[in-house]
Amino acid sequence: MNINHMKAFLEVAKSGGFQLAADRLHVTQSTVSARIKVLETQLGRPLFVRKREGTELTVAGRHFHRFAHAAVRAWEQARQEVALPEALNAVVTLGVQMNHWERIAPAWVEQMQATAPHVGTRVVADYSENLLADLSDGLIDLAMTYIPRQQPGLSCELLMEDTLVLASTTPRKVSKQWQPDYVFVDWGAEFRAAHNLAYPETRAPRLSVGLSMIGLDYVLKHGGSGYFSERTIEPLLKEGRLHLIEKAPTFQRPVYLLHPKEPLDLELLTLAKGILKEVAAQDMDKSGRQG
């Protein structure tokens, strides 16, 4: 199948119309229509229901969507890696769970560049489910996630563990009642379940965020409380900008390292994995000394 045909399919699915897709792809509407027609002929199924107000994916179209998305992403990555400059002989891609971007990714990149200057490095920050999908599709080489996915072909091990603590901009004791200034940081399904057990009487918070740094920035600017990584906020606790809430329950948030059991380049993966473990250990050791 032609990559441009799949790009046209994805754009029509995204925009909901052939003309909008054509405008975004900088081609004519007839070109988009022709590309979709070729795909439908090859697959033997209609991919869209054409309506006056726009288009909708058929059942076959919905099934095809994820394959087209993976194929286009794989093609874009392959084009980047195959067209490496002469100074580079390989590329390794690390997927990082978004809450660990600032603490882990820069140090890993620096050590990779220093240790293997002829290897290109690429970092993708996303949520755990998306990283696992990219890993399964071969779009990244190794991933840090909150999910210990056990499946054939993937190796999974514990990389590090965070302690999540409840901190506030004002000193106080824990309360099981609803707090109007509480910011809910979503650390994943396991955290949500444990949080509900610890605080069964609380109502929905006024603000929920999926990225801890956004929640922390808001709390520091406007006041309030939330659950954050103890290592991350240690300097803020020492400065008195944040205070641990007395008698508040803490939660453990393990981080797992996943990669293919049979990678394309075992030597490169071993190097990238080793440096990632060193960076994680240094991060934990640094926070231990600070404590």
From TrEMBL:
Pfam families: HTH_1 (PF00126), LysR_substrate (PF03466)
Matches recorded under Gene3D superfamilies: Periplasmic binding protein-like II, Winged helix-like DNA-binding domain superfamily/Winged helix DNA-binding domain
Annotated signal peptide: none
Keyword Transcription regulation part of the UniProt annotation: yes
Tagged with keyword Transcription: yes
Domain of life: Bacteria
InterPro entries on file: LTTR (IPR050176), LysR_HTH_N (IPR000847), LysR_subst-bd (IPR005119), WH-like_DNA-bd_sf (IPR036388), WH_DNA-bd_sf (IPR036390)
Alphabetical UniProt keywords: DNA-binding, Transcription, Transcription regulation
Coiled-coil stretches: none
HTH lysR-type domain ranges (all copies): 1-58
Similarity comment text for this entry: Belongs to the LysR transcriptional regulatory family.
Name of the molecule in the record: LysR family transcriptional regulator
Species this chain originates from: Pseudomonas zhanjiangensis
